[in-house]
Protein: Arginine deiminase
Organism: Lactovum miscens
Amino acid sequence: MDNAINVNSEIGKLKTVLLHRPGEEVENITPDTMDRLLFDDIPYLEIAQKEHDFFAQTLRDTGTEVLYIEQLIAETLDTSKLVREGFTRRYLEEHGYSRGKTFEGLAEYLNSFTTKDFIEKIYAGVQKKEIEIPHEVLSDMAGSDAEKLFYLDPLPNAYFTRDPQASMGIGMTVNRMTFAARQPESLLTEYVLNHHPRFAGKVPVWRNRNHQTRIEGGDELILSKNVVAIGVSERTSSKSIQQLALELFKNPLSTFDTVLAVEIPHNHAMMHLDTVFTMINRDQFTVFPGIFHGDGSINTFILTPGKQADEIKIEHLTDLEAALKRVLNLTELDLIECGGGDSIIAPREQWNDGSNTLAIAPGEIVTYDRNYITIELLKKHGVKVHEILSSELARGRGGARCMSQPLWREDL
Ligand SMILES: NC(=[NH2+])NCCC[C@H](N)C(=O)O
């Protein structure tokens, strides 16, 4: 099999990355829907796009091929009429429409667009005022229904391409995401993997999205060719981690034999492991001190294959540093604290993703410019930093790692 994905670390030289340029979907957030759509504010789109283009250019300038998911899904839907029809049906079904006038009206409406406009619609959402479906719809009449403005909600979180799936070795997990606001995003990934000529038949899926238990890419960190770290978080459950570990251990195409589960606080500021912990170099990490209990402890679990097939051995540790040294075979470790651990600066910079760095090579990262205290500190520790613009993008609560899905990294 020709591989389409190759991600055996968080830090190997980045060769190909998947992004999504924020679009109209971001302007379809209102104060009333913000919470449900997982935003804390409404970004100014024009500036957000400029910042995003700057991010993409930074990656290109350092030798990375930048792909856009919106382009890939367009190419996917153009492979055949059947694929596009199948996608439309699934998309509507997953939004609770199956047969009947609303289903038909929406399908017909979506069908009237060119592929490019169709994709923009999928991201932006379909407002009720856009089409007239001539029959009585309860949610139109029940004035207090939160769904009353849209037939299909916008996908404003789509520029956080890290989360709907995770590259892991030569394969991926295609994620069953936690909140309804994001669940449609991984259907796009599934379609690209199944039908895009660059990927179809070339990517083993370690775990697909047809599950009841949740997992998101912001929690899935590839520490080495054989170790993944996964956050037990607001977005990823311990059950999913155990199921995934089992699959990784027994699938002959997987090289992973160790999963390090790290339990972090369950809240919006720290929704994923990568908002509080990222890898920078073989022995360097950023970490937000707020994840530790008062005595410096944190629940970590090392999962390895058990004696019998389908059995997993779980070891409980409360020292993150010790756990990392163990699974990575290191004697020294440099944990760099967000905001220098200061009780005001650390949470402020963490809120704006100071701990969320994207390594583009060992010891070389991309991160938001606004977290200048953390940046100074990283430089003092010898890290090469590429700063990107962050006024508007940061309002979605995600930084450079969240906004990027590596597809290919050079092996270390
Ligand atoms: N990998 C990440 N940390 N992604 C950040 C995602 C932020 C997004 N607003 C959400 O709540 O889902």
